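Q: I'm writing up a methods section and want to include an example of the input and output format. Could you take the sequence below and give the corresponding predicted structure tokens, formatted cleanly so I can copy it straight into the document?
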Amino acid sequence: MPYLRILLVAAIAFGAYTFGARAGRSRYRTIKKNAKKAWNSPGVRSARRTTRATSKRGSRKLTRALNK
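A: Here is the clean output for your methods example:
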């Protein structure tokens, strides 16, 4: 009996994966396009620049503190 239950769950999972993969391609492309648009937006670009500068300053301070 447990084998039938495992087989049923596996069959449902396979079916869901198969149908989801077909429908998921277009959704994946949409998500990818929107993520790229968000990544390159001026606000995010500015935040990336600020974060990069802050982390460089922090790493320099940490290096100096460890070398003392």
